[in-house]
Amino acid sequence: MAGPLDIGSSLISQPWALLVLSLLFVGIYVKYNSGPRFANPKKLPLPPGPKPLPIIGNALDVPTEKMGQRLKELTEKYGDVVYLDALGQPMIILGSHEAASELLDKRSANYSDRIPSVMRLISGWEWTFVLMPYGLPWRRRRKEMHQFFHPNAVAQYQPLQQRECLKFLAKLLEKPETFLHQVRHSFASTIMRISYGVEVADENDPYVIAVEEGVATFNQAFVPGAFLVETFPSLMRIPSWFPGGGFKRTATAWQKIAHNMRDAPFEKTMESMANGTAEPCIATTMMENAMNRKDADLAEERIYARDVSALAYAAGADTTISTVQTFFMAMACYPEVQKKARAELDAVVGPNRLPTWDDRDSLPYITAIAKESMRWQSVVPLGVPHRSLADDEYKGYYIPAGSTCIANLWAFSRDPKVYPDPETFNPERFLKDGQINPAVQDPNTFVFGYGRRICPGRHFAEASLFIMISSILHTLNIDQAIDEQGKPITPKAEMTYGVISYPKDFPCSIKPRSPQAQALIYAGLKA
Asked: Which UniProt keywords apply (predicted)?
């Protein structure tokens, strides 16, 4: 068996390995000799953190899995602002909502940039404003998104959301074992109508499949540390067929998926618009507005309309999908929560109708369940990293320009000082005297991001969560599934790992709450 030196000698003897290693060492050298250690005009100390090693800095301290948990351990040891030097790239880990709010929210003019991403450019996601650098292209897309998803605009989607919710409930009555899939399909169907005016098929709709495949690639591509080329752009010089160039082949495959998600439904809507058969939607509204402006560059406006229509799915929908799936997990594990929720629904709504948005202020326990579903299993554990544009100072510490700033949302949701016994699903933590307690931090203040980068779809997401959760609890029973031995199967509170985390597959039993509740669902569909 070869020892370490034999393996090293064998590796170095390969020409391709020498090329890859040379590019890596060049990248490390450049980063190491252009880092923030040569800036800092006020000679302020950097935030505390683990001692860096020569050349590689804190590269070994940057976790590659369970990042939320591992970074929380660092901030518990060093404080709520931690500095890491990852191969010459300054990283600021924000371990408290207070620190994240101060920097990313109150000082958002300096912290609204994104880190440069090679994978964004080569994997087909160059058009998404979620990852775009701070600048005019980002601001234009953000402005367009806002006009369709600000609080007053969101109200116009309520009839559609109610209708899709009823279809979702009916599907659960027919195929309860497919509940995780049906959650995805319901939200995809709603967003496709809003973005493109397209009515999707109940099963295997090509546009829904395209969206789900696209979001899946996004979720893999932009996990911090997933691709070495993000740290060492010099690796782009490696041919795709060469050892070490596999990321290029992956990116090429993902590019087709991401562009298909963006282009296919938009082109269909443009065809319908040309034929005079298109339904009102984001895509048609943007194009009609452009055509009514004499100075508009229609080719450029078409690109904006295409991008914004596709972005709408990511503007809260996928976060909502994960939260509703988490809600099902919680209900299977905490039957006493269902019991209290139904008591509130019976008192306010009664047995003869379904909940509406007009009931929202009278259903504080339902609202608390929605908040706890957002908090209990962190949907976006690390958010999307911000980047500082200029040198800054925080609590006497120096924050270099170009720092990657990671807000550990997972840690925020697990802060025992804010949320006692954080691993327990407890909606009552948000209540006082039967009403929402404003003194308890609302998870929505961090789940949807910070500052100018806050998710523009958050109001739509919150409205969707309320109508889904209230309607499910009013009409259905969610229980633990029973195994072959007749024993209940308690779901494990486990999440997938990605930019967005989802509950790992779990079974549960879903049945109508009563014949009258079942009749309400079908009557609503016929109305």
From this structure: Heme, Iron, Membrane, Metal-binding, Monooxygenase, Oxidoreductase, Transmembrane, Transmembrane helix
Asked, for residue 37, whether it belongs to a domain, the answer is yes
Is there a binding annotation on residue 455? Answer: yes
CB atoms near residue 443 (< 10 Å): 25
In angstroms, the Cα distances linking 429 to 153, 297, 440 are: 31, 52, 8
Burial letters for 81-95: b for 16+ Cβ neighbours within 10 Å, e otherwise?
Answer: bbbbbbbbbbbbbbb
Q: Hey, what are 463's tokens?
A: 């409205």
The tally of domains found in the chain comes to 3
Share of the chain above pLDDT 90, in %: 74
Domain identity same for 286 and 323: no
- 407 forms bridges with which residues in the sheet? 94
Round to whole Å and give the CA distance between 170 and 190.
16
Q: Looking at the structure, tell me whether residues 87 and 204 fall in a common domain.
A: no
Are 461 and 184 spatial neighbours (Cβ–Cβ below 8 Å)?
no
**Cβ atoms 478, 509 nearer than 8 A:** yes
By CB atoms closer than 10 A (0-12, 13-18, 19+), residue 24 is middle
Q: Which of 273, 261, 260 is nearest to 302 (CA)?
A: 273
Give me the chain's average pLDDT, please: 90
Distance CA 355, CA 357 (A): 7
CA gap 380, 106 in Å, rounded = 21
- Using DSSP's 3-state secondary structure scheme, residue 335 falls into helix
Which DSSP state fits 401?
T
Which residue type occupies 338?
Answer: Q
Q: 375 with 425: CB under 8 angstroms?
A: no
| Contact indicator for 500, 318 with CB cutoff of 8 Å | yes
Cα 472 to Cα 355: distance, rounded to the nearest angstrom: 10
Give the whole-angstrom CA distance, residue 410 versus residue 153.
31
Distance, in Å, from the CA atom of 49 to the CA atom of 43, rounded to the nearest integer, reads: 17
| 343-385 per-position pLDDT tens digit | 999 999 999 999 999 999 999 999 999 999 999 998 889 999 9
Q: Which domain holds residue 46?
A: 12-118
Q: What pLDDT, on a 0 to 100 scale, did the predictor assign at position 223?
A: 81
What stretch of H or E contains 476? strand 476-482
